[in-house]
Amino acid sequence: xxxxxxxxxxxxxxxxxxxxxxxxxxxxxxxxxxxxxxxxxxxxxxxxxxxxxxxxxxxxxxxxxxxxxxxxxxxxxxxxxxxxxxxxxxxxxxxxxxxxxxxxxxxxxxxxxxxxxxxxxxxxxxxxxxxxxxxxxxxxxxxxxxxxxxxx
Length: 152
Hints:
Layout: E1 2-6, H1 11-27, H2 38-41, E2 46-53, E3 56-67, E4 70-78, H3 87-101, E5 106-112, H4 118-126, E6 130-131, E7 144-150
Parallel strand pairs: 4-5
Antiparallel strand pairs: 1-2, 2-3, 3-4, 5-7, 6-7
């Protein structure tokens, strides 16, 4: 598995982000959905990494820089054909390492509070993320769970 920065121009990446957004709309009310579209992922301060095996896209994950010391994990997604193969763990470990290399002291995230998000929350817990209050511009929302990890 090779993990590398992606410019979001490839068809496989576009399709994975579209699948991610569609899946989020199925479980999350519009006012509670914070998943980013392609334009959002291309904004300054965003970095997206994709995991590849040859020419096949396995998954992706991104960091949004909130400050020089704080990053937000965004757009974690494993391609449906590669679920439960350790792709998300590898991507998350890579992003935490990158965040540490950037000098971030903290990495935070927002995810869903519904049962369909239990596997994602368990993954983050396994990596030492703890539940926290809303951060950045988020507000309390019964459909959101907020987590953070001190990394520096």
